[in-house]
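pls ignore typos typing on phone
flavin-adenine dinucleotide + seq
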Amino acid sequence: MAESVFDVVVIGAGPTGLACAIDAQNAGLRVVLVDKGCLCNSLFHYPAHMTFFTTPELLEIGNMPFSSPNQKPTRSEALEYYRKVAEHYRLDVRQYHRVDGVSGSDGDFRVHVTDRFGRKSDLSARKLIVSTGYYDLPNYLDVPGEDLSKVHHYYNEPHPFFGLEVLVVGGKNSAAIAALDLWRHGAKVTLVHRGPQMHRHVKYWILPDIQNRIKNGEIRAHFNSTVQSIREDEVTLQTPEGTLTVPNDFVFALTGYHPDFGFIERMGVTLDPDNGRCPMVNPETLESNVRGIYLAGVIVAGERTNEIFIENGRFHGALIARDLSAKIPAGMAA
Ligand SMILES: Cc1cc2nc3c(=O)[nH]c(=O)nc-3n(C[C@H](O)[C@H](O)[C@H](O)COP(=O)(O)OP(=O)(O)OC[C@H]3O[C@@H](n4cnc5c(N)ncnc54)[C@H](O)[C@@H]3O)c2cc1C
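k done
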């Protein structure tokens, strides 16, 4: 049974979902957000002491100022800011409710939801906005031993790894930041990357730091190398010099993440195989090939997860709200 009828259900309460909800609400529509985790669940799961790459004003949504004493805000400042925004706009956010799927059609969608105790319910909506991000599904290495409990695909903080042999896999920002943080807090760090050097997208203030630690031998690095297998006490690497087995206590495989393409396709949205699996959307409205279903945030760029950030995804809400206003005139809103 549907508990209530909304003009819009927003699936995913990340920065983009919040921006979309605010814009739709400002257009006079009745909106609810649903998230399988907490508010801004992806940001919550970033490294505990991370600093954003972006200055605060570029993370702002809903015309609310984000003031920070720091040139680049921290994760906890961002979480505080988005909590305040949600509070200010009195957003209706159903946290810890995972959307399993969607049925129905434009004007009469059913959103099938399961809460953290396994209880199922439905929400009814005229229109849907999907802003589910990309941070839930890691790109796996697909090597033997990856399922051992010592292998992590998310980095949180360094303390539990003091004095231990840690392998960091990857060559971009996340790998560089984790390797440096672990090393600075007493872990013995080895970095392995399939490319010939750290990736060119590593931020200009992080790159010399990691390069110098590698040059000084403080972090051991293997480039043009891959992980062949992982066992309880060691890992085997494939390097240009041949196979190398090194002692190991923990592995951080920080090789990126990808959107839940299956979830999007099950709604009937077509992914373009010739364009990085970008969902088919009208670029002016972000309505997909399924009438009434809009896509927003990082998922609009498909596999190219480095194209849309908070900085630019936050403007998707305005495009969608304009189209929604035209299609659900204020007098007809729920
Ligand atoms: C370490 C790190 C640092 C970054 N730094 C920056 C930066 O400095 N500046 C910047 O602009 N960007 C940065 N990014 C990228 C940025 O965080 C993402 O682009 C941004 O979070 C995307 O926003 P979103 O709202 O589209 O998705 P998300 O923030 O990922 O939100 C998606 C939400 O959908 C929810 N969800 C997913 N599936 C379901 C489901 N089935 N049912 C219900 N809910 C669901 C998730 O729980 C999540 O809360 C960084 C990313 C990382 C990993």
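The radius of gyration is 22 Å. The chain has a mean pLDDT of 96. more later
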